[in-house]
Each structure stands twice: as C-alpha cells, then as structure tokens.
Backbone:
C-alpha cells in the first residue's frame, strides 16, 4: 500500500484556524491568524462567508491590514474597506509600496483617497500620480518605483559601500541594480553576482549587462508576462517613450498577472468575472449572472425556432428528434476545442493576422478528418438502430457540415470579437454554442426534409 500524500502545511494551518474559530476561542484564533503570512490571511478571508469574514477581519493586526487588502480580490476588498473608518484606512494603506497603493486607492471612497494622498510626502505623491497615470493592466500600472540605480562611471567598490549604507532600505526581490546616465535614461543592469565576482576597482560599465531590454510603460500586462517567461526574468526595468527609467516590475507581480489571466479564461467561459466573491450576497450574484443567462436564453430560442421550422418533418420521422442532440453536441465539442486553442493563442500573443490563415486551414483539416471518422461511426449506429440507410446518410452529412462550421467559427470568432473590443473568453462560448446548434439543426433537419420526405 502506498504512503498517504503529505498534506500542505498552509492548508493544514488554515484548517486548524477554522476549527479554533468554530470553538469560539478568539484569542487563540487571533494568535494563529497573525502568525500566518499576509497572503495566507487573505486566502482565509476569501474562503469564509461574509459574517465569519467580518469576525476574522477584526482579529487581524492593524499593521497588517494594508498588505492583506492588496492580496484580496476586488469584491472582497471592497466589502472589507466598507467596514473600516477613515482613520483605519489611512493608517492601513499609507505605508504600502507605491504599486500596491495605486491598486487600492482606486477602490477607496473619494474623500478617503484625498486624505491618503495628503498624508504622503511629495516624493511618494509624485510616484503615486505617475503610477495612476497608467492603466492598471499595463506595465506602468504594474511597476514599482523602488529602484536602486547606479551610474556607469562608478567603481564596484563605491557601489558596495553604497549598498551597505542602504541596509534594510534595499528593496525586496533585488537581483540587480539598474544602470542609468546622469539624466536618468536606462542603460543596462548590474547583476549582484557580477558585482560580487568582479574586482572592486572595476567600473560599473565594465561589469554591467546590456542584454536586458527595458519594458515600455505602455505594454500590456500580458506582454510583460510573456517577456518574463521568455527571458526567465526576476525583475525588469520600465521606461517611458524617451527611455527614462520609471521603475521596475518584479516576478511576484507577474505571477499575479498570470493567475488573474488563468482565472479570467476559466471563469469567463461561464460568464463569470475573475474578481467575483465566491460568498457574495445572493442578490448581487444573481444580478450579475442574469445577463448571461438572458443572452443564453435568446440563443436557445433561436435554436428552438430553427427546430420549429421543421416540425412537420419531425412528426413524420420520429428518429429525427432522437438524433438531433447528437449533431449539436458533436459540433459544440469540436468548436469548443478550436475556440479554446485560439483564445489561448491570442492570450500568449502567438496568433497574428499573418498566421491566422494557416491556423484556419489546419483546424478545417482536423475537422474534416474527424468529421469523416465520426460521421461513419454515427451512421453505422443509426443504421443499426433505426434500420434506415437514408437516415444514416443524412446524419453523417449533417455531422460533417456542423464539425466544419464549428472549426471555422472557433478559429475566427475570437479574432473578430477582439477586433470589436469584446472579450473572447467571456462571449465566445455563448456565440459558438448558438452557431453549432443552429447550423447542426438546420443541416440535419434541412437534409432530412429534402431526402426523407
């Protein structure tokens, strides 16, 4: 017998905390809670229903409030912010890093935002305004201004003495120092490993690396994540259009982008937002989901209307009613496969106008092969089931038509939606299902009307 898999320590600690909360031991719960990392506290808060969440939030040490808020999804963060008074909010967010503060300040009431900005010194205020001038999902929105810069003419010995003076002021996740000229334009990076392995009298220019390209502040978060993945980066400098250093992006911010993108793709297929609170109030969740249920209902009525046009054929040949779902289902699965592949290609930046034609050709070829194989399988089953060769041929032809239509739609629909400014992950599934249902029913019932009646 194999040994049981080791439990996740984080999961175990959170489960233990749940048990203590259920026992009502608030002091012990508070000690256990504040022994967790701030990200773990945020995870625990998101896993609790609203009443318990409010109770646990009051147990969090006030000095950790700001950091915990940065790890929460938007809905949960907004709920907890509404529970805090102005003084608590200002104290909680005032010490945050500029990039985290820029994310949170947009969720604060206007009056509180003004108070937070007034409480900052001029340098931090300027940095915050600069961060807020860029979209949240851009490189400028992701960057932090906590950079350590050196100039190329400095010797490494001087740099080492400079770092010793910084001590605790050295930013987290520092794997390199950013090299700039006297005007602040980005030149390259000096890796700490090179700093330690070169001679102290060597200059920064002799030890620095020129291969690390700066990221434009206007790049999208998706483009930033791709750059980090392709170049195995831990940090990356961010510059403006003129090459002036603005800040840097660290790998922990990129991991958040990747997670949010994955959540968006997964939840978007069901018409849900990646920021939605799992324990949100019933009416709020119902209102948000009602829109896509309504859209789906309209598409379902469209498919039903197509079926209704062939009511006479269905009444005369009962087998048509039995076999209709097979045609629609096969098209839906085939289309979803192509749709998912295409959306992923767009998300990774691998799909462009230049290779779209090749992708379309490839997906149509795959659909053609699969349609022949499975049309034959379904035709044989229909023949054995209903003892009717004509029905077998009709359903085989309908499946072939629907699989080809599904591949064509799945390949081109995301591109069309993106060009129209519509999120393919959110709307693609609903539209694809409509197309495969309508084409499937129209092909099957239309061919049956022509050749069976």
Residues:
């Amino acid at each position: 017998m194999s040994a049981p898999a080791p439990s996740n320590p984080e999961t175990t600690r959170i489960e233990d905390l749940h048990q203590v909360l259920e026992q009502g031991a608030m002091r012990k719960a508070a000690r256990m809670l504040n022994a967790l990392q701030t990200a773990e506290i945020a995870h625990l808060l998101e896993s609790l229903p609203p009443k318990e969440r409010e109770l646990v939030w009051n147990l969090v040490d006030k000095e950790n409030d700001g950091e915990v808020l940065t790890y929460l999804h938007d809905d949960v963060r907004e709920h907890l912010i509404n529970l805090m008074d102005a003084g608590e909010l200002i104290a909680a967010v005032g010490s945050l890093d500029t990039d985290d503060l820029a994310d949170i300040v947009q969720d604060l009431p206007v009056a509180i935002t003004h108070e937070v900005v007034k409480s900052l010194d001029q340098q931090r205020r300027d940095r915050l305004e600069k961060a807020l001038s860029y979209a949240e999902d851009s490189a400028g929105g992701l960057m932090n201004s906590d950079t350590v810069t050196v100039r190329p003419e400095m010797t490494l010995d001087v740099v080492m003495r400079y770092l010793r003076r910084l001590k605790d002021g050295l930013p987290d996740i520092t794997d390199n120092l950013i090299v700039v000229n006297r005007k602040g334009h980005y030149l390259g990076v000096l890796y700490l490993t090179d700093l330690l392995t070169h001679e102290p009298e060597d200059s920064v220019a002799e030890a620095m690396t020129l291969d690390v390209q700066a990221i434009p502040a206007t790049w999208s978060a998706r483009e930033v994540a791709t750059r980090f993945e392709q170049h195995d980066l831990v940090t990356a400098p961010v510059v403006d259009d003129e090459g002036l250093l603005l800040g840097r992006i660290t790998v922990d911010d990129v991991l958040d982008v990747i997670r949010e993108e994955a959540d968006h793709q997964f939840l978007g297929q069901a018409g849900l937002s990646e920021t939605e609170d799992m324990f949100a109030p019933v009416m709020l969740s119902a209102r948000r989901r009602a829109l896509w249920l309504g859209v789906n209902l309209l598409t379902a009525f469209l498919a039903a209307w197509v079926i209704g046009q062939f009511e006479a054929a269905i009444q005369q040949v009962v087998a048509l009613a039995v076999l209709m779902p097979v045609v629609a289902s096969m098209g839906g699965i085939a289309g979803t496969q192509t749709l998912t592949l295409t959306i992923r290609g767009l998300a990774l930046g691998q799909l462009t106008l230049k290779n779209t034609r090749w992708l379309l050709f490839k997906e149509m070829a795959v659909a053609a092969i699969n349609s022949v194989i499975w049309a034959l399988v379904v035709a044989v089953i229909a023949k054995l089931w209903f003892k009717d060769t004509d029905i077998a041929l009709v359903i085989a032809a309908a499946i072939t038509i629907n699989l080809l239509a599904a591949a064509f739609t799945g390949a081109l629909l995301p591109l069309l939606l993106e060009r129209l400014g519509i999120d393919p992950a959110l709307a693609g599934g609903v539209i694809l299902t409509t197309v495969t249902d309508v084409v499937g029913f129209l092909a099957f019932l239309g061919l049956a009307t022509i050749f069976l009646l």
About this structure: The domain at 282-452 is CATH 1.10.357.20 (Tetracycline Repressor; domain 2). The longest strand covers residues 186-191. The chain has three domains: 10-132, 149-270, 282-452. The two ends are 63 Å apart (CA to CA).
